[in-house]
Amino acid sequence: MDALLSRCAGLDVHQETVVACVLYGEPGQKVNKQIRTFGTTTKELLALSDWLLKMESRYVAMESTGVYWKPVWNILEEEFELVLANAHRIKNVPGRKTDISDAQWIAKLLLN
Q1: DSSP states along 33-57
Q2: Is 17 inside any structural domain?
Q3: pLDDT digits (tens, 9 = 90+) for 30-67
Q4: Of the candidates 96, 5, 18, 94, which has an alpha carbon nearest to the alpha carbon of residue 63?
């Protein structure tokens, strides 16, 4: 499947942390990635927004169980095109258990 976007981000949102993965590259080329972890305070979420802007990632998908996604959405909604994914519907293969791999999987789903 060919990529429709050349740059996007996936966020795995938890109560105290947000793991962000930005995938970027030209379609048909090797995809590059940058990964960072942020806290969930307003200061940290603003730092997440600044980092996503610096990475030029206008499209952001996030996964969260519960209501932890709401503050993240509120901070990011003015600058980015956002997608909230149902955690149960985007599960990958068994064994995918780290926050980093979750963020990468979410970004990959958005990229394709």
Answers
A1: EEEEEEESSHHHHHHHHHHHHHTT-
A2: yes
A3: 889 999 999 999 999 999 999 999 999 999 999 877 89
A4: 18
pTM (2 d.p.): 0.87
Rounded-to-integer distance, Cα 59 and Cα 102, Å: 17
Tokens of 20: 């962000």
Cβ pair 73, 48 in contact under 8 A: no
Query: Tokens representing 94?
Result: 């068994």
Separation between Cα atoms, residue 55 and residue 33, nearest integer Å: 10
4 neighbors 110 (Cβ within 8 angstroms): no
CATH code of the domain covering residue 44: 3.30.420.10
C-beta separation of 102 from 8 below 8 A: no
103 in a domain, yes or no? yes
